[in-house]
């Protein structure tokens, strides 16, 4: 019996890969005490692929990451603005992981 392996598209190069070969960028809702407060989100790399939240995928190289950042594909995929300091933190994590 063949188990179907999930495929995902890299936001940088646009090619399809096995999900486990890509790095997931995830948008997770931050829980707040005040239910009337505007919703806040945390954007981070999910190197394991188990964090809850909305995800977008990119190849494990910095070139694809840079292409996706430059074309604002993470913002489109996650439907939110991503501050420069968050992008820089993710860039450093990607460089460490290569």
Topology:
Blueprint lengths: L6 E3 L6 E3 L4 E8 L9 E7 L7 E5 L3 H9 L2 H6 L5 H14 L1
Antiparallel strand pairs: 1-2, 3-4, 3-5
Folded structure, characterized:
The chain has helices spanning 62-70, 73-78, 84-97, and strands at residues 7-9, 16-18, 23-30, 40-46, 54-58. The chain is α+β, with helices and mostly antiparallel strands. The N and C termini lie far apart (34 Å). The chain has a 3-stranded antiparallel beta sheet. The mean pLDDT is 90. It has one domain (7-97): YlxR-like (Hypothetical Cytosolic Protein, Chain: A).
| Low-confidence segments | none
- CATH homologous superfamily, by name? YlxR-like
Describe the main β-sheet briefly: 3 strands, antiparallel
Mean pLDDT: 90
CATH architectural label:
2-Layer Sandwich
In spatial order, strands of the major sheet run 4-3-5
Q: Strand tally, please? A: 5
CATH class: Alpha Beta
Helix content: 25-40%
Kindly report the CATH topology. Answer: Hypothetical Cytosolic Protein, Chain: A
**First and last CA, distance:** 34 Å
């Amino acid at each position: 019996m063949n188990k179907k392996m999930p495929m995902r598209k890299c936001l940088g190069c646009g090619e399809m890969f096995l999900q486990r070969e890509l790095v997931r960028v995830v948008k997770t809702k931050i829980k707040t005490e005040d239910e009337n407060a505007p919703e806040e989100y945390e954007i981070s790399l999910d190197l394991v692929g188990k964090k809850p939240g909305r995800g977008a995928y990119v190849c494990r190289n910095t070139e694809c990451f840079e292409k996706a950042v430059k074309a604002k594909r993470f913002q489109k995929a996650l439907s939110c603005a991503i501050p420069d300091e968050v992008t820089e933190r993710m860039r450093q994590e990607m460089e460490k992981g290569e």
